[in-house]
Amino acid sequence: MNNADKQYLEIVKNILENGYHDKNRTGIPTFKLPHQIMQFDLSKEFPILTTKFVAFKTAVKELLWIYKDQSNDVRLLQEQGVHIWDEWAREDGTIGKAYGYQVRKFKQIDKLINMLKTDPQSRRMIISLWNIEDLPDMALQPCCYQTLWDVNDNKLNCMLIQRSGDFPLGVPFNTCQYAVLVHLIAQITGFKSGLFTHIINNAHIYENQVEGMKLQLTKEAHELPQLWINPEINNFYDFTADDIKLIDYKHSGKINMEVAV
């Protein structure tokens, strides 16, 4: 089995067998485990699940909405056929001062790229979406809220910290999209892609997702696809969804599961 499905499904099994069962803000109880970790060498593999279909293009569009467009306007996603934020959209069409708003407010992508180019051994290369002052004015406080960056032997490494992870739906989506972000930043700054470590503080499966997870555990795993990024792009803000593609993505089909809002 490929490394992405192997690490993911091992955690799924552990949550189902040993997870703590309790209530949460959504009203749908979960089985949860704390401090779950997956790690990938992006120079050798692209971490996307093959035991079920993961909407890669949708993940890329959301990633660019947050980090390139630095937007909180859900309508920009809707124009691209992406509706994953519709449930949280306010009357003004935004999600408040969340996600892309925080990237833009502090020019965090620009600062990261500049530091990677001028001081790549800095130990202060961090992007944080967890702005305590603005938390009350966010439609949803960020789940993937922080990335820490490091350069080792000309390779760009990234650690993603996720406070809360819907393991069936959100986590596979987040893993592949932040792996893409590492590749994009690496290309712009002249590094190779290195380690990507995904840490989930509260990894959970909702009660109404358990059967879907059990079904996924029976599915066949395939070889991981190759990631293609347009090599002609040298400015982060020039990337479009068409510049980022998966080559030969084979999977075992969709598994429908509900999102808890």
Commentary on this structure:
30% of the residues lie in helices and 24% in strands. The chain is α+β, with helices and mostly antiparallel strands. A 6-stranded mixed sheet has the order 1-2-6-5-4-3. Strands 7-8 form a two-stranded antiparallel ribbon. Helix 2 (56-67) crosses helix 6 (170-189). The model has no long low-confidence stretch (mean pLDDT 97).
Task: Give the SSE map.
Elements: H1 3-18, E1 20-22, E2 30-41, H2 56-67, H3 74-78, H4 100-105, H5 108-118, E3 126-128, E4 144-152, E5 155-166, H6 170-189, E6 192-206, H7 210-216, E7 226-229, E8 244-247
Helix pairs in contact: 2-6
How large is the radius of gyration?
18 Å
Shape: globular
| Helix count from the secondary structure assignment | 7
Number of strands: 8
Average pLDDT taken over every residue: 97
Give the percentage of residues in beta strands. 15-25%
SS class: alpha+beta
The residue fraction in helices comes out at 25-40%
The main sheet comes to: 6 strands, mixed
- How many angstroms does the end-to-end distance come to? 33 Å
Strand order of the largest sheet: 1-2-6-5-4-3
Q: Please trace the helix and strand order, writing H or E for each element.
A: HEEHHHHEEEHEHEE
Q: Oligomer, anyone?
A: single chain
Runs in which pLDDT lies below 50 for 5 or more consecutive residues are none
Keywords:
261 residues, alpha+beta, six-stranded mixed beta sheet, two-stranded antiparallel sheet, 7 helices, globular
